[in-house]
Amino acid sequence: MFSKFRKKMNDPAFKKKFWIYTAVMAIFWAKMSIVQGGIFTLDIENANEAAILAFNPISSIFLLFGVGILLAGRKGLLASYILGSVLLYVNVLFYREYHDFLTIPMLGQAANLAGLGGSITKILAVTDIFLFVDVFVAVFLLFYLKPARLQSFVPKRKEGLILAVIAIPLFLVNLGWAQTERTELLQRAFDRNMLVKYIGVLNFHAYDIVLQGQTEAKKTFADSNELVPVLNYLNEKETEPNSEMTGVAEGKNVILLSLESTQTFVVDNTLNGEELTPYFNDLKEEGAYFSNFYHQVKQGRTSDSEFLLDNSLYGLNRGAAFFTHSGNEYEATPEVLGEKGYTSSTMHANDETFWNRNVMYESLGYDEYYSKKDFDVTEEKSYGWGYLDEYFFSDALEKMEQMEQPFYNKMITLTNHHPFTLPEDKKFIKEGDTSSTTLNRYFQTIRYQDEALKQFVEKFKKSDLYEDTILVIYGDHFGISENHQQAMGEYLDKDINAYEQFQLQRVPLLMIGEGIEPKEHDTVGGQIDLRPTIMNLLGVEDENPIQFGQDLFSKDRREMMITRDGDFANEEYVGVKGSCFDRETGEKVEGEACASGFKEAEEELALSDSVVYGDLLRYLDQTELIEEKDSSEQQE
Ligand code: GP9
Ligand code: MN
């Protein structure tokens, strides 16, 4: 083969073509390397990883251009170049906003991008134009200058095929090399940043297409037997809820208050001597406050937190279950409470279709959804993402006062959302002075949200609702992403390593109501635990056995919180990206200590995924039969 190639290189026409291919690919490689190495922050830890990062674009470039040429010759090459460039840039924008990579299910959520509104201008940079200089030059050369040399450059389809085929061994080399750093890379593909570090962003997209195919097949081929391992696992892990708390809020209304992008680090913290959340700091003395409570969301963000809350199932690793699995059968909190005479509703002053809520809320069994159109939204009362929290709260309280009781109502705030902007007269404290303007503004929107919360809770306390209601306040997810680690370190005055970054994923949780003793709890828990905790307080027998959470007040809790990345915190340790830390001191400990935790996390996530991907709750009425069959088989 090589001698044939050498012979061909003696032909000047072939030689020219060869060098043009090489130049085109090298330029694209350089661009991709700039994006991967300079714009994404992929935590390159050693020279081997840096070399892998430099190597991994190559196979994808062969595949991309090979397929382009195979399909449409020279035009196909140009089309591949443009397509590849646009794809890279879309990833750049997405990464700046979410510190994550696009997946196919996310593309189906293009409607959400419209909601990015103010955020989009914040993620564009003037220098981005340089990422397209090569495209402009290519188009200019081909369509205006049309030099004879280039006109005689006619790629053959067969050459495209050869390039595409060469991509395969190149990718295998890449994968084998990557596995020297991380074994079973593709099997343990929880962390997209890691995946891109090792196989490159374009190969990641190819892999994502494969995953998509597998996902669709899962539902088609699923059957009720797949519930057996899930039920076995859950039976084995089952813990008793705290019986002293059972029914303390029987028959009461539940108000859930989801605080946008609110992290625990703001609680009891100050900026220039001023408290960031003065009202919440006092309020938390009146109820059960959980200081080691984590969000567990991924690409579905707020919607994932809602999914966790109402199902006690994990959200998905790719995309948002609110979009991809809104057609599933669920037996969620609103439905279960509905059977006990509750009315259920959810309130959020954004477009009703955002996160596909209008569809998903129906599947979850909500009776009523109050979206933007149901609030008294005017331009004067809106800013940034929309209706300011203080007005949202006051409209919401009015609505709740009219509701049939008992009710279960979820309220979702909006103002404290990236890019964290406020009208001048709502800025109650000065901006921060860290190196991140995002974090600097975040302090102000947090402070604003606290003021709005104060107005709401004080009015609520005076209302007739107060005595008959439990109030559950929690943060939906982080607001300050890993992109701002340095600034976060400046503010907290410590180095933000993997452990600290993990601990920053804590969000506040506060429950207030008669029968709930004011106390700070340090149990390790997450959003997955909300449903069983609330159901126990209400004294409701929740017959859906497919839930992964446990009562947060339980005395024999399995102290464990699993993130969607397969990381975890338990009583003693925090396991992050393969490393292990003492949970309380943050000291690094030998990896073995976390091995069982990682294994448990992986197993639990896979089981929860099997339920969602297989739409297994449609077989819920067969669970008793399955359990009987399983125990009789075990006896045999
Ligand atoms: C929008 C709100 C915020 O409706 O839920 O979206 P997020 O980006 O936080 O998921
Ligand atoms: Mn949110």
UniProtKB/TrEMBL annotation:
Binding residue positions for substrate: H417
Residues annotated as transmembrane: 20-39, 51-71, 78-96, 123-145, 160-178
Catalytic residues as annotated in Swiss-Prot or TrEMBL: T302
Pfam family, one: Sulfatase
Ranges where the Sulfatase N-terminal domain occurs: 252-540
Keywords: Cell membrane, Manganese, Membrane, Metal-binding, Transferase, Transmembrane, Transmembrane helix
Cellular component GO terms, alphabetical: plasma membrane
Main location: membrane
Alphabetical list of SUPFAM superfamilies matching this protein: Alkaline phosphatase-like
Cell membrane is among the record's keywords: yes
Signal recorded as keyword: no
GO molecular function: metal ion binding; transferase activity
Domain of life: Bacteria
Membrane topology: Multi-pass membrane protein
Subcellular location(s) of the protein: Cell membrane
InterPro entries: Alkaline_phosphatase_core_sf (IPR017850), LtaS-like (IPR012160), OpgB/LTA_synthase_biosynth (IPR050448), Sulfatase_N (IPR000917)
Binding-site positions, Mn(2+): E260, T302, D476, H477
Protein family membership: Belongs to the LTA synthase family.
Protein name per UniProt: Phosphoglycerol transferase MdoB
Taxon lineage: Bacteria, Bacillati, Bacillota, Bacilli, Bacillales
